[in-house]
Fold each of these.
Amino acid sequence: MDELLDEDFTGWPKNSPAPRNKASTRMWNRFSESRGKVVAHELYPLAIIVHGDIAVAYCLCTSAYRNKDDEIEMPNGRYSDLLVRTDDSWKFLTWHGDADE
C-alpha cells in the first residue's frame, strides 16, 4: 500500500461507511490479509483518461480469495480511480468501488 497510495490518499470502498485515508486503508488491508489471501487478481480497464499529471481510470476486476476455511471466493468488482503522477511513478489519490454485491 505504501508504494501505491499518495500521501494525500483518501478512498471510499463500498463496504466502508466513510472514506478512508492511507493509514486506515493500510490497517483494513492488513485485517483482510489476516483472514485469508488473494490468490489471483485480474483488472479489465474500461477507460483511462490522462490529463497532464492526473489520470482517471475505470475498471472491472475479478479476484480469487482463499479464506481461512480454505474455500475460494471469486468476487467481481468495479472501481473508479484517480491517480497523480509523482517524480517516480503514478500513485492513487482516490478511488471508489469494491466487489459487487
Amino acid sequence: MALGLGALALIAGTAAGWNAGILDATVTPPPLIRAILVGGSVGVGIVLLGRSLGRLAESDTDDVPGLVRAVRLAFLAVAAFAAAAGWALAHPLPLIVAAVIAGIDVIETSFLLLVVGAPTHHEDES
C-alpha cells in the first residue's frame, strides 16, 4: 500500500505541476489558508521527527525494519518542513521538493522493507 501511495504522490504532483491553475491555487491559497498549511506542516514535521528519533532510540542494530521505518519518518518530516517553506514563501519549488522527497522515500523504504523482511534460507551447516 505504501508503494502505491508513494507512486500516487509522484504522479499527482507531476500532473498538478503541468496545470498552471492547479499549481497556483495550491501554492498561493488565501493568506489564512496558507498560514494554516504552514503551521500544520510544521506541526506534522515536528511530530514525525519526534517519532523518528524515538524509534531510533528504541531500536537496536538487529532491528533493520525498525531502523528503516525510523529513517522513513525522518525523511517524511523533511518533506513536511519543505512543504511548509513552499507555502510560507508562496513558491512552488519547495512543494515540488517535498512531493519528491515524500514520494521517493516511501517507494524506496517500501522496497527496503520488502527486502529486509524477506525470509532468508540458510542451509544447516551441521
Amino acid sequence: MKIEKIDHISFAVKDLEQTKRVYREDFGLIQRISILAESEKIKVARYVIGEVAVSYGITAPDGEVAKFHR
C-alpha cells in the first residue's frame, strides 16, 4: 500500500487555548473549524495547512480521547 495523500492529522492536547494561541501568534494561522462533539466529550480546533488539516482536541477526563493522554 502506498500513501498518496494525507487528509488530516489529529492531536490530543491538555490545553487547547494555549495551542490555539501558539498557532495564531507564532505561526500566524487562523483556526478554520471549531467542533464541539458533546457525545464524545471533545472540543476540537482545526487548521488547514496546504492540503492537510491539522486538528487539536481537548477532552473531558472521562472522554474517549482522554485515554490517549500521557
